[in-house]
Amino acid sequence: MADLSVTIAGVPFKNPVIAASGCFGFGLEYEDFFPLEALGGVSLKGTTLEARAGNRPPRIAETPAGMLNSVGLQNPGIDAFLREELPKIAGRDVVRIANIAGRSPAEYRELAERLRGAAVDLIEVNISCPNVREGGAAFGATCEGAVSVVREVKKAAGQPVVVKLTPAAADIAEIARAVESEGADAVSLINTLLGMRIDLESRRPVLRNNFGGLSGPALLPVALRMVWQVSHAVKIPVIGMGGVSSGRDAVEMFLAGASAVQVGAALFRDPFAPVKIIGEMNAWCDTHGVEYVRDLRGAASLWEDDPDWRLL
C-alpha cells in the first residue's frame, strides 16, 4: 500500500482526505458509517461569534451534477462550540480544523483569540461563503479585504492559519499571494460558485435566498484550474476542494498542485465517500507504482511545456 501521509503547515495527517466544513457537522454525525479516525482530518462546522439560525428555507436544491445551498452559516456560536461540541472529539486521532467566519476583521480576530489553547490543530478562515449578507466572500474577493482579515487573525491565532478562498475573485492567484504575504500558513480552495434555479410554476427562485452556492461534480474542472493557478503562485500548501467525488478526482487535485483534499457534497450522496476515496487513492497509487502520494503534488505538466505541443 502507498504511504498517504501528508503534512500541512507542520501538522501531520495520516491521509490527505478531509471532510469539508458544513458537510460533516462537528464530527460525530457520520459515526454510524465509519470512525473519525479513518479520515485524515475534519473541517468542523463554520463557527461565528454569536449563534446564527441561518437563512430561511428552502435553502437546498438539486442541480445537474451538483447542488445549491444557501444555509447561511447556521451554527450555535463559539461559546457552544467550545463548551459542548469540541470536547466530544478533542481526544480523537484525527486532525481537527476549526472553520471561522465573521462580519468584520475584528470578529475574526476575536474568534482566533477564543480558539487559543483549544483542541484544534488548524484554523480555517472562511472569507469565501457566498450565502451571508456581511463578510464572507465580500472579504475574499479583493486583496485588501482578504489581507485585512488574515492580518488580524494572525495577530491572535495560536494555531496555523488556512485561508479558504472564493472562486468569485477576479484573480484567485493574486488573492493567494496576498494572504501568503500576510502570514497565511496554507490556503484551501475553492468554495462554492454562486448559482440559482427557478421554479417554473411559481416563477420564483427555488431557494428563498434567491441564490446559493453550487457544489458537487460540476465544480471539479473549475476547482482544478484554480488549484493549478494558486499552487504555481504560492509556496504554502494548497488544500484542494470542489467536486471531489472519487479517488481519481483526488489524484487529479494532487497532480494540479494540492497537498490534501476536502470532500463535501459527495457526502450527501454517499456517506461512505471519504473512506472510499482513501481506498481508491491507495489502489491507484499501487497500480501506478506510486510509493508516496505526496510525490504526485504538482506532477502534471501543461501542453505548452512541451516544445512540440503546437504541432498537435
Structure description:
With 312 residues, the protein is an alpha/beta fold. The chain has a single domain, classed as Alpha-Beta Barrel (TIM Barrel). 28% of the residues lie in helices and 18% in strands. The chain is built from nine helices and 16 strands. The chain has helices spanning 78-85, 105-114, 137-140, 143-156, 172-181, 220-231, 247-256, 266-269, 273-287, and strands at residues 6-8, 11-13, 17-19, 41-43, 60-63, 66-69, 95-100, 122-126, 161-164, 186-189, 193-195, 198-199, 204-205, 212-215, 238-240, 260-263. An eight-stranded parallel β-barrel has the order 3-4-7-8-9-10-15-16, surrounded by six helices. Strands 5-6-14-11 form a four-stranded antiparallel sheet, with no helix packed on it. α2 (105-114) packs parallel to α4, α6 packs parallel to α7 and α7 crosses α9. It is globular, with a radius of gyration of 19 Å. 51% of the residues are buried.
Set down the secondary structure blueprint.
Blueprint: E1 6-8, E2 11-13, E3 17-19, E4 41-43, E5 60-63, E6 66-69, H1 78-85, E7 95-100, H2 105-114, E8 122-126, H3 137-140, H4 143-156, E9 161-164, H5 172-181, E10 186-189, E11 193-195, E12 198-199, E13 204-205, E14 212-215, H6 220-231, E15 238-240, H7 247-256, E16 260-263, H8 266-269, H9 273-287
Parallel strand pairs: 3-4, 3-16, 4-7, 7-8, 8-9, 9-10, 10-15, 15-16
Antiparallel strand pairs: 1-2, 5-6, 6-14, 11-14, 12-13
Helix pairs in contact: 2-4, 4-5, 5-6, 6-7, 7-9
